Amino acid sequence: MSKMTLKNTHNLWDGHSRLEMTEMLQQYEDGHIKSLKREVLKARDSVVVLLYRQDTKKLVLTSQWRAPIVFRGDNRPVIEACAGNIDQKDFDNHPKDALAAAKTAAIREVEEETGWHIAQLDYLYALYSCPGISTEKLYYFIASVDEKVQQGGGVRDEGEDIAVLEISLQEAITKIQEGEIMDLKTVVLIQYIQLHCLDYLE
Protein backbone atom coordinates (compact mmCIF):
# COMPACT_ATOMS: atom_id res chain seq x y z
CA MET A 1 0.00 0.00 0.00
CA SER A 2 1.36 3.42 -0.92
CA LYS A 3 1.97 6.00 1.79
CA MET A 4 3.28 9.55 2.22
CA THR A 5 5.04 10.78 5.36
CA LEU A 6 6.52 14.13 6.39
CA LYS A 7 10.31 14.07 6.79
CA ASN A 8 11.03 17.71 7.57
CA THR A 9 9.84 21.26 7.00
CA HIS A 10 11.16 24.80 7.21
CA ASN A 11 9.48 28.18 7.00
CA LEU A 12 9.79 30.25 3.82
CA TRP A 13 7.47 33.15 4.65
CA ASP A 14 5.28 34.45 7.48
CA GLY A 15 2.53 36.85 6.49
CA HIS A 16 -1.25 36.68 6.22
CA SER A 17 -0.59 32.97 5.70
CA ARG A 18 2.54 30.91 6.26
CA LEU A 19 4.48 29.25 3.45
CA GLU A 20 6.45 26.12 4.33
CA MET A 21 8.92 24.09 2.28
CA THR A 22 8.33 20.43 3.11
CA GLU A 23 10.19 17.27 2.29
CA MET A 24 7.82 14.34 1.91
CA LEU A 25 8.64 10.66 1.51
CA GLN A 26 6.39 8.96 -1.04
CA GLN A 27 6.41 5.18 -0.59
CA TYR A 28 5.00 3.26 -3.56
CA GLU A 29 3.22 -0.09 -3.40
CA ASP A 30 6.33 -1.84 -4.73
CA GLY A 31 8.37 -0.51 -1.79
CA HIS A 32 10.24 2.17 -3.71
CA ILE A 33 10.63 5.43 -1.79
CA LYS A 34 10.97 8.85 -3.44
CA SER A 35 11.76 12.14 -1.73
CA LEU A 36 9.52 15.03 -2.82
CA LYS A 37 9.82 18.72 -2.02
CA ARG A 38 6.51 20.58 -1.89
CA GLU A 39 5.56 24.12 -0.91
CA VAL A 40 2.64 24.09 1.53
CA LEU A 41 0.52 27.16 2.28
CA LYS A 42 -0.36 26.90 5.96
CA ALA A 43 -3.67 28.76 5.88
CA ARG A 44 -6.21 29.14 8.67
CA ASP A 45 -9.42 27.14 8.51
CA SER A 46 -12.39 29.15 7.31
CA VAL A 47 -16.17 29.27 6.96
CA VAL A 48 -18.47 30.05 4.06
CA VAL A 49 -22.17 30.82 4.56
CA LEU A 50 -24.78 31.12 1.82
CA LEU A 51 -27.47 33.44 3.20
CA TYR A 52 -31.09 33.87 2.22
CA ARG A 53 -33.68 36.29 3.54
CA GLN A 54 -36.68 34.75 5.25
CA ASP A 55 -39.05 37.43 3.94
CA THR A 56 -38.03 37.89 0.30
CA LYS A 57 -36.35 34.45 -0.20
CA LYS A 58 -33.50 36.21 -2.01
CA LEU A 59 -29.89 35.16 -1.63
CA VAL A 60 -27.58 37.58 0.17
CA LEU A 61 -24.12 37.62 -1.42
CA THR A 62 -21.04 39.80 -1.10
CA SER A 63 -18.85 41.52 -3.66
CA GLN A 64 -15.26 42.45 -2.88
CA TRP A 65 -11.82 42.77 -4.40
CA ARG A 66 -9.53 39.75 -4.02
CA ALA A 67 -5.77 40.24 -4.39
CA PRO A 68 -5.01 36.95 -6.26
CA ILE A 69 -7.70 37.72 -8.86
CA VAL A 70 -6.36 41.23 -9.45
CA PHE A 71 -2.86 39.70 -9.62
CA ARG A 72 -4.09 37.48 -12.47
CA GLY A 73 -5.23 40.58 -14.35
CA ASP A 74 -8.95 39.89 -13.83
CA ASN A 75 -9.88 43.38 -12.73
CA ARG A 76 -13.32 42.95 -11.21
CA PRO A 77 -14.60 42.29 -7.71
CA VAL A 78 -15.53 38.73 -6.78
CA ILE A 79 -19.18 37.87 -6.09
CA GLU A 80 -19.29 35.25 -3.36
CA ALA A 81 -21.06 33.87 -0.34
CA CYS A 82 -20.07 35.40 2.98
CA ALA A 83 -16.78 33.88 4.15
CA GLY A 84 -13.93 34.38 6.59
CA ASN A 85 -11.30 32.81 8.81
CA ILE A 86 -11.91 30.94 12.03
CA ASP A 87 -9.88 32.94 14.55
CA GLN A 88 -7.65 31.35 17.15
CA LYS A 89 -9.93 32.74 19.87
CA ASP A 90 -12.80 30.73 18.34
CA PHE A 91 -10.80 27.53 18.75
CA ASP A 92 -9.68 28.62 22.24
CA ASN A 93 -13.32 29.05 23.26
CA HIS A 94 -14.19 25.62 21.85
CA PRO A 95 -10.94 23.65 22.32
CA LYS A 96 -12.42 20.23 21.58
CA ASP A 97 -15.14 21.18 19.11
CA ALA A 98 -13.96 22.53 15.74
CA LEU A 99 -17.53 22.72 14.43
CA ALA A 100 -18.61 24.93 17.35
CA ALA A 101 -15.64 27.19 16.62
CA ALA A 102 -16.71 27.34 12.96
CA LYS A 103 -20.28 28.26 13.90
CA THR A 104 -19.03 31.08 16.12
CA ALA A 105 -16.90 32.39 13.25
CA ALA A 106 -19.81 32.10 10.81
CA ILE A 107 -22.09 34.25 12.96
CA ARG A 108 -19.39 36.89 13.40
CA GLU A 109 -18.41 37.02 9.72
CA VAL A 110 -22.02 37.31 8.55
CA GLU A 111 -22.67 40.28 10.82
CA GLU A 112 -19.37 42.00 9.96
CA GLU A 113 -19.70 41.54 6.19
CA THR A 114 -23.44 41.84 5.59
CA GLY A 115 -24.91 43.31 8.77
CA TRP A 116 -27.55 40.56 8.90
CA HIS A 117 -28.50 38.46 11.94
CA ILE A 118 -28.65 34.69 11.42
CA ALA A 119 -32.01 33.13 12.32
CA GLN A 120 -31.05 29.54 11.48
CA LEU A 121 -27.61 28.16 10.67
CA ASP A 122 -27.37 24.76 8.96
CA TYR A 123 -24.01 22.99 8.69
CA LEU A 124 -23.35 20.98 5.53
CA TYR A 125 -19.77 19.69 5.51
CA ALA A 126 -16.08 20.56 5.90
CA LEU A 127 -13.86 20.22 2.82
CA TYR A 128 -10.23 20.95 1.99
CA SER A 129 -10.24 24.00 -0.28
CA CYS A 130 -7.18 23.16 -2.38
CA PRO A 131 -5.39 20.06 -1.04
CA GLY A 132 -2.60 20.30 -3.61
CA ILE A 133 -1.18 23.46 -2.04
CA SER A 134 -3.08 24.59 1.08
CA THR A 135 -3.91 23.19 4.55
CA GLU A 136 -7.17 25.17 4.75
CA LYS A 137 -10.34 23.29 5.68
CA LEU A 138 -13.51 25.15 4.76
CA TYR A 139 -16.74 24.70 6.72
CA TYR A 140 -19.86 25.09 4.56
CA PHE A 141 -23.16 26.47 5.90
CA ILE A 142 -26.55 27.64 4.67
CA ALA A 143 -28.34 30.22 6.83
CA SER A 144 -31.52 32.25 6.91
CA VAL A 145 -31.36 35.86 8.07
CA ASP A 146 -34.16 37.85 9.65
CA GLU A 147 -33.01 41.36 10.57
CA LYS A 148 -30.23 43.88 10.08
CA VAL A 149 -28.19 44.38 13.24
CA GLN A 150 -25.33 46.51 11.91
CA GLN A 151 -24.15 48.24 8.75
CA GLY A 152 -21.93 45.49 7.36
CA GLY A 153 -19.30 46.11 4.73
CA GLY A 154 -16.47 44.29 6.49
CA VAL A 155 -13.67 45.51 8.73
CA ARG A 156 -11.72 48.38 7.18
CA ASP A 157 -8.71 47.77 9.44
CA GLU A 158 -8.43 44.36 7.76
CA GLY A 159 -8.57 45.94 4.29
CA GLU A 160 -12.15 44.90 3.58
CA ASP A 161 -14.52 46.93 1.42
CA ILE A 162 -17.56 44.71 0.91
CA ALA A 163 -20.75 45.43 -1.03
CA VAL A 164 -23.86 43.38 -0.24
CA LEU A 165 -26.02 42.01 -3.07
CA GLU A 166 -29.51 40.48 -2.93
CA ILE A 167 -30.53 38.35 -5.88
CA SER A 168 -32.89 35.47 -6.61
CA LEU A 169 -31.68 31.90 -6.97
CA GLN A 170 -32.38 32.02 -10.71
CA GLU A 171 -30.36 35.23 -11.05
CA ALA A 172 -27.48 33.54 -9.23
CA ILE A 173 -27.64 30.54 -11.58
CA THR A 174 -27.58 32.87 -14.58
CA LYS A 175 -24.55 34.71 -13.18
CA ILE A 176 -22.73 31.38 -12.83
CA GLN A 177 -23.58 30.45 -16.43
CA GLU A 178 -22.43 33.86 -17.69
CA GLY A 179 -19.19 33.81 -15.69
CA GLU A 180 -20.10 36.62 -13.31
CA ILE A 181 -19.98 34.31 -10.29
CA MET A 182 -16.61 32.56 -10.56
CA ASP A 183 -15.96 31.63 -6.93
CA LEU A 184 -15.91 27.85 -6.43
CA LYS A 185 -17.22 27.70 -2.85
CA THR A 186 -20.17 29.90 -3.80
CA VAL A 187 -21.01 27.75 -6.82
CA VAL A 188 -20.88 24.64 -4.62
CA LEU A 189 -23.44 26.12 -2.21
CA ILE A 190 -25.76 27.41 -4.92
CA GLN A 191 -25.72 24.02 -6.62
CA TYR A 192 -26.39 22.34 -3.27
CA ILE A 193 -29.55 24.41 -2.91
CA GLN A 194 -30.53 23.55 -6.49
CA LEU A 195 -30.14 19.83 -5.83
CA HIS A 196 -31.37 19.44 -2.28
CA CYS A 197 -32.98 22.49 -0.77
CA LEU A 198 -35.28 24.32 -3.15
CA ASP A 199 -37.78 24.47 -0.30
CA TYR A 200 -35.41 26.94 1.40
CA LEU A 201 -36.42 29.50 -1.20
CA GLU A 202 -40.08 28.64 -1.81
What this model shows, in words?
One of its GO terms (biological process) is nucleoside phosphate metabolic process. Belongs to the Nudix hydrolase family. NudK subfamily. It comes from Commensalibacter communis. The chain has 202 residues and is of the alpha+beta class. The chain has 2 domains: 3-42; 46-201, Nucleoside Triphosphate Pyrophosphohydrolase. Strands 4, 5, 6, 7, 8, 9 and 10 form a 7-stranded mixed beta sheet that branches. It has a 3-stranded antiparallel beta sheet with strand order 1-2-3, with no helix packed on it. The chain has 5 helices and 10 strands. Helix 4 (169-177) crosses helix 5. Strand 4 (46-53) and strand 5 form a beta hairpin. The mean pLDDT is 94. Helices cover 25% and strands 41% of the residues. It starts with a strand and ends in a 6-residue tail after the last helix.
Low-confidence stretches: none
Mean pLDDT: 94
Report the principal-axis shape: globular
What is the CATH first-level class name of the largest domain?
Alpha Beta
Q: Name the CATH architecture of the largest domain.
A: Alpha-Beta Complex
SSE sequence, one letter per element: EEEEEHEEHHEEEHH
Strand portion = 35-45%
Supply the helix-strand structural class: alpha+beta
Number of domains: 2
Integer-rounded radius of gyration: 19 Å
Q: Span between N and C termini?
A: 49 Å
What is the overall number of helices? Answer: 5
Major sheet characteristics: 7 strands, mixed
